[in-house]
Amino acid sequence: MIEDDLRAAFARHETLTPPIGPVRAAIERSVVRRRRRRFRLRLGGTALALVLAALVGVPAFTPNRVEKVPLLSESAPPTPTGALNVLLLGLDAAGPADARRADSILLLHVPADRSRLYVVSLPRDLVVSIPGHGKNKLNSSFFYGLGTPTADLARGYDLTRRVVTQVTGVRIDAGAVLTYRAVRKLTDAVGGVPVCLPTRIRSHHTPRVYPAGCQQLDGAAAVDLLRQRHGMPDATLDRDRNAQRYAAGLLRRVDERGMLTNPVLLAKLLTQVGSDVVTDTGGTPLPALLSVAAQGTDTVPVAVGLPVRYTNEPPYGFQLDPRLAPGFLTALRDDRLGGWTTAHPDLVTKLG
C-alpha cells in the first residue's frame, strides 16, 4: 500500500521535474570552469615569470610560489595606474640546489605613462648594508637570505628585495628569480635570440667566440655569453650590459612570434620552460601586471646602469657615484627616467 501511494505521488509531481539534459549540461559547465580555473591558478605565476623574463631577460628561475600570488578572478582586476618596478635576479647556478649568489640584478621600470620599458642594472659588486650582516656586496644578500640547511630561493629574493629598496628608495611591485637552466630553455623555446655586441668576446668558459655585430644565439650560447666578464674592459659591468642586450633580443623574438597574445603559443612555451621559476607579484593581480607590461613593449627598451665608481677599499667593490647617482635615483623615484637618460646618452647601453 505504501509503495502504491509513493508511486502515485511521484506520478502527480513528475511534470514539475526539470528536464535532465539542461541540468546535466549546467553541471558539466561548472566542472569545466573549475578545472580551467585550477589550471590558470597553477600556471599563473609561471606566466608572470615568463613574461618578465621575456621583457628583461636574465638567467632563469625555480619552483613556483603560486600560493603567495592572488591570481586570476572571475571579474577583471583593476589595472595599476602608477609606475611599476619589477626586480629580476639571475643566479650563478643551474638550479636551486646550486644557488649561492645573485650575479645579475636588474630592475624593470615601467613608467606611469607606459611609454616604454627601462632596464636598470645594479652591479653585483655594489657595496651595501645588508640587514643583520653589515656591509657586503649586493649579490651576497641573496646568499644570506637563502638560509640553512635547506636553501629557500624565496627568502633569498626577499632579503635582496629589501636591500634594493633600501639602495634605490623605490617600492618593488613584483619580482622573479632566474637560473641559467631556465634561460637556456626559454631561448631555445623561442627559436634563438638575436644579440648585437659592440666588440668581439672570447668565452672564458668554452671555445666559443662571439664576433662584434648582431648574431643569433641558442640556449647554450646565450647562457655562456651571460656568464662572461673575464677579459672584458669593464668586467661585471660589461656582463650587465650584455644581459640588457640579450633582454632586448628576447623581447623582439617573443613579440615577433606573437607569444604574449596567442594563448596556444604561450601555453606551449610555458610547458617547455617548466618549473624552473620563482615569482612574486607583490599583491598586484596577475592580469593587471601583464596588461601593464604589454603596454610598454611597442618601443625598444632603454637600458641603463646605476651610476657607480670602483673603490679599492675593503670590501672592494662599487660605491654609488656621488656626482651622478643622486640625480639618477631621484629620476627613478619620481618616474622621470626618460628625461635623465636623454640628458646622459653616454650612460645608456647600446642595444643594436
Keywords:
352 residues; alpha+beta; six-stranded mixed beta sheet; two-stranded antiparallel sheet; 11 helices; 14 strands
- Low-confidence spans: pLDDT under 50, at least 5 residues? 31-51, 53-74
Mean pLDDT comes to 76
Query: What would the principal axes of the Cα set say about the shape?
Result: globular
Number of helices: 11
Major sheet, described briefly?
Answer: 6 strands, mixed
Helix content: 40-55%
Quick summary:
The protein is globular, with a radius of gyration of 25 Å. The protein has helices spanning 2-13, 20-56, 140-146, 153-168, 180-189, 219-227, 236-256, 263-273, 286-295, 325-333, 337-343; strands at residues 84-91, 102-110, 118-121, 127-130, 134-137, 174-178, 193-197, 201-202, 209-210, 213-217, 278-280, 302-305, 308-311, 317-320. Strand 8 (201-202) and strand 9 form a beta hairpin.
Structure description:
The chain has 352 residues and is an alpha+beta fold. Helices cover 42% and strands 18% of the residues. The protein is globular and about 95 Å long. Mean pLDDT is 76; it is low at 31-51 and 53-74. The longest helix has 37 residues, at 20-56. A hairpin with a 6-residue loop joins strand 8 and strand 9. Helix 2 (20-56) crosses helix 9 and helix 6 (219-227) runs antiparallel to helix 7. The N and C termini lie far apart (92 Å). The chain has helices at residues 2-13, 20-56, 140-146, 153-168, 180-189, 219-227, 236-256, 263-273, 286-295, 325-333, 337-343; strands at residues 84-91, 102-110, 118-121, 127-130, 134-137, 174-178, 193-197, 201-202, 209-210, 213-217, 278-280, 302-305, 308-311, 317-320.
